[in-house]
Amino acid sequence: MALIFDDPLDQRSSDDTDRGWGERPAGSGDAAADLARFLDEKPPHHI
Known about the structure:
The protein is mainly alpha-helical. Helix content is 23%, strand content 0%. The chain is built from 1 helix and no strands.
């Protein structure tokens, strides 16, 4: 196994793009899809 001494900050990570933050593709403005996303992402302490 070779040691690599590159600077890790020179490389682009997935967090450097919008895709790295868990963004979903833009929807069609469908209210049912918006409600489904809200229910999927709500915190567990909200009913």
